[in-house]
Amino acid sequence: MINGHVVQVMEVLGRSSQGITEPFLCRGDDGALYYAKGKAAGRKSLVAEWIASSLAEKFGLPVAPFAIGEVDEALVRLGAPGLADLGAGYVFLSRRVDSVLELTWPNVQEIPIGIRSDVLVFDYWVRNQDRMLTELGGNPNLLWNAGRKEVVVIDHNQAFDADFDCKTFFSSHAFAASWDSIFEDMIDRQRYEDRLGSALGQLDDICDKMPESWWWLGDDLRLNFSPDDARAILTECLPNFWSRR
């Protein structure tokens, strides 16, 4: 069920060429501009995006505002052929952020250590390897406002990765260098465990606010991922969180 506000997509303005899912730029009935992910993204991607983004918000990460959106069938039917990739029905919306560029390696040290640590710990918790950045480049899925010296976290669609690999994660994550200082601080470790536990406690409510249809691939074919699977991943790592590396 959906237990929250749904933004109606009123207009599709174009499509991004960046990212695996190539989201559509849309205008909502609230007047805001959003990047929308729908049919082409795949059900698992939408589920992961909603759950991980919601957990990230509860955890305190500076995520771009997001919402559930709804696309009218007529908008797809009467629009450009490419809108079939967006599809009618419920979509994931991430509000467009102005005055930002993709984070680059030289800017990493300008981000407060606390935020870097928060992002690293959270991505480790939800098994998200899709925030890669080294001195050689990468795709961090982080936006940078140079004027305000602020980072914005986007794209959690690769969370709950069944092929998550700790070695790859710690060799490629944009903020991997922050791990040792967290690991060595027992007070910080306890604070993180408390914050993760608090966010986890809201998982049921998060799932209740997501479209029920996203759990299904078809009328009688259930998605091979469930709220219990998400909970198992999130709870499995907590007892051994600091030793998994």
Characterization of this structure:
The chain has 245 residues and is an alpha+beta fold. Helices cover 32% and strands 20% of the residues. The protein has eight helices and ten strands. It has helices spanning 43-59, 73-77, 113-125, 166-172, 179-183, 186-200, 203-208, 227-236, and strands spanning 6-15, 24-28, 33-37, 66-71, 89-95, 101-102, 132-134, 137-139, 142-145, 150-153. The strands form three sheets. A five-stranded mixed beta barrel has the order 1-2-3-5-4. Strand 9 and strand 10 form a beta hairpin. The longest helix has 17 residues, at 43-59. The chain is globular. The N and C termini lie far apart (37 Å). The relative contact order is 0.16. The model has no long low-confidence stretch (mean pLDDT 94). Pfam families: HipA_2. Residues 9-244 form the HipA-like kinase domain. This is HipA-like kinase domain-containing protein.
